[in-house]
Amino acid sequence: MTIKISNTQLKRALNITKRKQTVNGKQQAQVESCVLLCDGDIARITSLTRDLTGLTEVVADVEGTSNIPIPDIDRVLGILSLHSENLTITWEHQSNKLRFKSA
User: Model-level pTM?
Assistant: First the structure.
């Protein structure tokens, strides 16, 4: 399952999804993982916060149809910083691998 998405849009969507909060002077994410639901030209991330009090939906433009799990938002944001703008993401369900490619 493969999609094409803008690196900038994906970073924006993941940062919004994370929903940082400050607890005892330290920042932490309210959401640590999510699923990217891609349906042709729209990608949606629907997430539930850690304390189950907030539901958020973020939308981005995408090419392709797939459901791609994002197991660790911070790790994926680190990976995205190494890639160029046009990004291809592949979810290999059988091997349970998430692959990122750019130019």
Answer: 0.85
